[in-house]
Design brief:
about 575 residues; alpha/beta; Formyltetrahydrofolate synthetase, domain 3; twelve-stranded mixed beta sheet; three-stranded antiparallel beta sheet; 18 helices; 24 strands; about 30% helix; globular
Length: about 575
């Protein structure tokens, strides 16, 4: 059989008897990182090794034109369930499968956030026989990018509060400060805090809060910067507060802190080179959380890959309505490069869950009924597959559906899913066994992807024009991608849109923050809901990231830990190796 059927949604809590042998990624069987680079054609002088198995690559080797004849592959997914659909496994494994077919292939993925690693989701290195390794190094610290982002972010916060306290020369309105501190842990107690307590030397008392580092504006700056100079300009333009009396916005540049932030982030602008468990190269750069932020691999990481490889497989966060939309509406505008094909990852059990007949909760076992044949539930749930295929095709990108196979899948279910995928408009549909068999389990998928990409049928077009009013851009996303009939702007959101328009930010693209578990704003709405009102409670400005962030429904920008967090199973063994990361 193929992929592991993990009966528990919590990836760390249960092992399956059908699992392939656990990969030993903590021994000296991995290639030295210099050898991975040599095989990729990356000269040693462009490397800054961090130990034996990872190295920073000078981002400047990605500047210039794309490799002639190279193919750019975007991996996205149906609307995910708490069980996960295997998108990272597919991204990593597809690059390995393409390499087995003789292509110079690489995957570009985002660095995992330690919040989910120690929460319920677990690590973000892939799984089974399709991983980036050493996975414990990828999941914990890596080369320090997240720490640099947090330090620069919090330096800006400290500079802001200091300026406010010491004579307030920029006339900062303490009630209209928008910049928040960050930490890369799930910590709900920090969502709303009061600072400046303890006396007049400790700052001006005010309400604020923390966001998770990986979804911060500075992570978007790293993800979207095209050069060191571009990063510096983006840092200058970050808006942190409003001035008293409606005098405009206060920026990091006005605070005089952008240069120091750039110095902290200098090395974080370089992508990290690692390897897959089959020794093929992997580039890691950027952060996750496409539900509340940009959530894609970086422009510079992909640029380095596109200069050195003929097939670049890159991952977008969550479903096609989230990460892929932001990839295509935001990232492609910045990079000037668009994908030749998109791979939409689906699972039988995920689509059956979208029938609305089964209840899935993070950290709890999957319903037994979900693991038995139910073609009726699958056909109902495939409404989500149809919607997500069409969402990608609206951008002019051809789609290949990858069915991440589990032992509980039946032949009737797989046949139905393939037929419905083609009827939805997919160019091809292939069953993937990458988790259990590594690259060998994805050769059918790799052939289909390479063939569709080679046809040259992609005709990229953004979903909206930047000159449209802000409200119209939000409405376009809600009605054309999410299935809404209309949008509803709160009085606060309306006032913010007016203010951003007055001050010249109306042409920015849109980065919607909403639940990842539904096409809508409500995680309870499964399948492909239609006819509802999409509510926007506020709109945030990320001038450094270069977009506006409408917040829909009850979405939060700082996750919390649950009753059965993953950290309980993680430890340092007597041999010095990290245990319990999956």
């Amino acid at each position: 059989m193929s992929s592991i059927d993990q009966p528990s949604i919590s990836r760390h809590s249960t092992k399956d008897v059908d699992a392939p042998p656990m990969l030993d990624t903590q021994v000296n069987s991995l290639l030295p990182i210099e050898e991975v680079a040599r095989r990729a054609g990356i000269a040693r002088e462009h490397l800054s090794p961090y130990g034996r198995h990872k190295a920073k690559i000078d981002h400047r080797i990605g500047l210039g034109t794309r490799r002639t004849g190279g193919r750019y592959v975007l991996v996205t997914a149906i609307t995910p369930t708490p069980a996960g659909e295997g998108k990272t496994v597919t991204t990593i494994g597809l690059s390995m499968a393409l390499a087995r077919l003789g292509h110079r292939a690489v995957c570009t993925i985002r660095q995992p956030s330690m919040g989910p690693v120690f929460g319920v989701k677990g690590g973000g290195a892939g799984g089974g026989a399709s991983q980036v390794v050493p996975m414990e190094e990828l999941n914990l610290h890596l080369t320090g990018d997240f720490h640099a982002v947090a330090a620069a972010n919090n330096l800006l916060a400290a500079a802001l509060d200091t300026s406010l306290l010491l004579d307030n020369p920029l006339a900062i309105d303490a009630e209209r400060i928008t910049w928040r501190r960050v930490v890369d842990m799930n910590d709900r107690a920090l969502r709303q805090v009061r600072i400046g307590l303890g006396g007049e030397q400790n700052g001006v008392p005010r309400e604020t809060g923390f966001d998770i580092t990986s979804a911060s504006e500075l992570m978007s700056v790293i993800g979207l910067a095209r050069s060191q100079a571009d990063m510096r300009e983006r840092l200058e333009s970050i808006v942190v507060a409003e001035k008293q009396g409606g005098g405009g916005f206060v920026t990091a540049g006005e605070l005089g802190v952008a240069g120091a932030m750039a110095a902290i982030l200098k090395d974080a602008l370089d992508p990290t080179l690692m390897q897959t468990c089959e020794g093929t190269p992997a580039l890691v750069h950027g952060g996750p959380f496409a539900n509340i932020s940009f959530g894609n691999s970086s422009v510079l990481g992909d640029a380095v890959a596109l200069r050195h490889f003929d097939h670049v497989v890159t991952e977008a966060g969550f479903g096609a309505d989230m990460g892929a939309e932001k990839f295509l509406d935001i990232k492609c505008r910045v990079s000037g490069t668009s994908p030749d094909v998109a791979v939409l990852v689906a699972t039988v059990r995920g689509l059956k869950a979208h029938s609305g007949r089964f209840e899935l909760k993070p950290g709890t076992p999957l319903p037994k009924e979900l693991l038995t044949e139910d073609v009726e539930a699958l056909e109902i749930g495939c409404a989500n597959l149809r919607a997500q295929v069409q969402n990608v095709r609206q951008f002019g990108i051809p789609v290949v559906v990858a069915v991440n196979r589990f032992p509980s899948d039946t032949e009737r279910e797989l046949a139905l899913l393939e037929r419905l995928a083609r009827e939805a408009g997919a160019e091809a549909c292939a069953v993937s066994e990458l988790f259990a068999r590594g690259g060998a389990g994805g050769e059918e998928l790799a052939r289909a992807v390479a063939e569709v990409a080679a046809r040259g049928g992609a005709r990229y077009r953004p979903l909206y024009d930047l000159d449209q009013p802000i409200e119209d851009k939000i409405r376009t996303l809600a009605t054309r991608l999410y299935g809404a009939a209309s949008i509803e702007l709160s009085p606060r959101a309306q006032a913010e849109i007016r203010r951003y328009t007055e001050l010249g930010y109306a042409r920015l693209p849109i980065c919607v923050a909403k639940t990842q578990y539904s096409l809508s704003h409500d995680p309870k709405k499964k399948g492909a809901p239609t006819g509802y009102v999409f509510p926007i409670r506020e709109v945030r400005l990320q001038a450094g990231g270069g977009f506006l962030v409408p917040l829909a429904g009850d979405i939060l920008t700082m996750p919390g830990l649950g009753r059965n967090p993953a950290y309980r199973g993680i430890d340092l063994g007597p041999d010095g190796h990290v245990q319990g990361l999956f």
